[in-house]
Amino acid sequence: MYTYKNSYRDKPQASTASKKCCSSICISMMKCCKDFCNETSIHGFNHIAAPKRHWLERLLWLCACGLAIWMALNVSIGQLQRYNESPTVVTLEKDFRSWQFSMPAITCCYEDRMDRAKLPGVIKEYWNIEANDEKYDYYTRFVKAVANSDILNLQMFEQFQDMQMSVDMYQIAVDVMPEVNIKTVPSEAGDWKWWPVMTEAGVCYVTNSLALADVAIVKPNQSETASSPVMCKNSANNCYIVVDNYAVAKYYVHSPYDVMDATSVPSVAYLSLTRESELSTMESRCGRGVRELHPRRRGGPICTPAGMWCLSFFAQNITSNNGERCTCAPQCVDSVFKEINKKDQNWDKPPFSSRSSIKFVVQGPRTRYTREIVFHFQDLVVSFGGAAGLFLGASFISCIEILYFFLSRLFYTTFKKNEKNQKTTAVKSKLHTTAHETFRVEHLNAVLDSQKKYQYDVM
């Protein structure tokens, strides 16, 4: 049974063992630091471990070396931050007569994005409800709300927030989307195919766009978008594209290298309208070596009707980024189109009364912004070397010496420990072998002695 005194006496023994361990570690570290200071070629470190120096002098050199290391790291981190954030400079080009510029991408979003002919089949497929069922009108309103919703109009989900079943609203919107019925007459030949996309404005169709990877409902392959975007030469003849449609729709004109922005002002085309819209263009390009920016894809659970209703309260904050200005770097290649003039005419008589027609006339850019690299990776390496040489007097060979010192110490410690273990094992084996041979000799002597005794008895 342990008494208070016994338990009290055990503590100093454990404390002594821990102190010995800490002392051994500190001594080893001090010896390693001393050897490093004596062997390194970096300026100042040899004065710290030089023999016959006063401790105040050693402390002075230690502070000086620490300050030099901090200054070198501070300058190097600043140069690395500059290389990652703003290694480019923007130049302005004016030689517009020889340019070819990108025609705009156009996203067409119908006002009514639900095909009535597809509605009964969709309700039958998802809920097994026939047209004569009393719940048919309820699901009709739900499908219509899903099909015609967008990021700024989600209030219609209020009546469905108690809906318990989880359905794929994305697929419902795709299943009831109307077929495209758009006629395109461009000034420049090219691939003006209309692709179905899922955007912030709901299910739409887009043409002359390269930004289809994340929004296209039917994913195109690389060969199908090889000719996009369509280019036009900057000349006296204006470039244009005429879009005829047989339903009320909104047209979003945007860069072919980006998706449409639901917060931008669209061109609303109603039946019997004929419009000529004049667009100005501004382009930005990148020089060789400028890195492209790719957005990160974010996953998450599929939203429910209750979630869509909740999202309606924060739609303005989402679209406006909480009133904060976006500090993201612009795309490497980009185009901005702005409407500067428009002319409208109404045709009330057939056949013009059953369709809308908008002609987008694009003026070529007179100026172009180009981003060029002014701070290359080689400049970053040189800045690192300059900081290390200025504050520490170090070079690339000094870094190799530091690596060599620590690797040699590691190998020496490892092999020395293994050699010590081997010697201990050999000594133990030798002792064990000697003891076994001695036992055998004694056993044989005992046998011989017993035989001699037997011979004497016979005589």
From TrEMBL:
<protein>
    <submittedName>
        <fullName>Uncharacterized protein</fullName>
    </submittedName>
</protein>
<dbReference type="GO" id="GO:0005886">
    <property type="term" value="C:plasma membrane"/>
</dbReference>
<keyword id="KW-0472">Membrane</keyword>
<keyword id="KW-1133">Transmembrane helix</keyword>
<dbReference type="GO" id="GO:0015280">
    <property type="term" value="F:ligand-gated sodium channel activity"/>
</dbReference>
<keyword id="KW-0813">Transport</keyword>
<keyword id="KW-0812">Transmembrane</keyword>
<keyword id="KW-0915">Sodium</keyword>
<keyword id="KW-0894">Sodium channel</keyword>
<feature type="transmembrane region" description="Helical">
    <location>
        <begin position="380"/>
        <end position="407"/>
    </location>
</feature>
<keyword id="KW-0406">Ion transport</keyword>
<keyword id="KW-0407">Ion channel</keyword>
<keyword id="KW-0739">Sodium transport</keyword>
<feature type="transmembrane region" description="Helical">
    <location>
        <begin position="59"/>
        <end position="77"/>
    </location>
</feature>
<comment type="similarity">
    <text>Belongs to the amiloride-sensitive sodium channel (TC 1.A.6) family.</text>
</comment>
<dbReference type="Pfam" id="PF00858">
    <property type="entry name" value="ASC"/>
</dbReference>
<dbReference type="InterPro" id="IPR001873">
    <property type="entry name" value="ENaC"/>
</dbReference>
